[in-house]
């Protein structure tokens, strides 16, 4: 005897689709502007920043595509829909950020040996406008990044690019006022190092979900012990807890009933406990009488 406690709510990502779409449009437009400005002025810094914005566009586009696909109606072969696409997009964003950080550090090393001549004023004007665009996109994604791992990946990319714009502005000021060309590679290296720890954390979160590990901070053995203490529960076995996508915790398990216990009462108490204590909103719990001889099959 079992019961499935689900929900029909849309994912957090879907609620923030419009801000993501606006951020994507703004970033894509200014990437083209910055690319043209870099070609016209011959500025390697602007071309590099345009390439960095290009990764933002790609990351935002993947996040947007994942949310759009996740909203599609489930078919008979995809019983959980396309929720995991958000996590896959977050993982792809993490890998992309690692590549960008490696590129920035590589370029910084190259420039230490032969720093290019960079025009200060054009560099500063374009970088300031780029910073404004990044701030707008950053604010649009800020709320969604707290709820969706997918949006968090896009948010971190915009944040990294925003810091990149600040770094370019600082470098432009130093180059214009002092002519010291080494400011560019030093700031570039700092940006690359800043990106890495945040990227590591994001990638780790995505991999944890894909490996179907228990949610962070949740001790499965402790949860089993707590459920076993609920009135009417004799034993708990085959309990599994995992995250389907950001904000959607899932559980399955078998609960053996005490003699004379009412199935519905015990089931309601177990489901209420999982939801209130561990935010598990999608649980499938099978209740069994003590006399039922169930052959456990460890997974």
From TrEMBL:
Lineage top rank: taxon: Bacteria
InterPro entries linked to this entry: Cation_efflux, Cation_efflux_CTD, Cation_efflux_CTD_sf, Cation_efflux_TM, Cation_efflux_TMD_sf, CDF/SLC30A
Keyword Transport in record: yes
Keyword line: Ion transport, Membrane, Transmembrane, Transmembrane helix, Transport
Chief location: membrane
Pfam family, one: Cation_efflux
Subcellular location: Membrane
Database matches in SUPFAM superfamilies: Cation efflux protein cytoplasmic domain-like (SSF160240), Cation efflux protein transmembrane domain-like (SSF161111)
GO molecular function, one term: zinc ion transmembrane transporter activity
Protein name, as recorded: Cation transporter
Organism this protein belongs to: Metallococcus carri
Taxonomic lineage of the native organism: Bacteria, Bacillati, Actinomycetota, Actinomycetes, Micrococcales
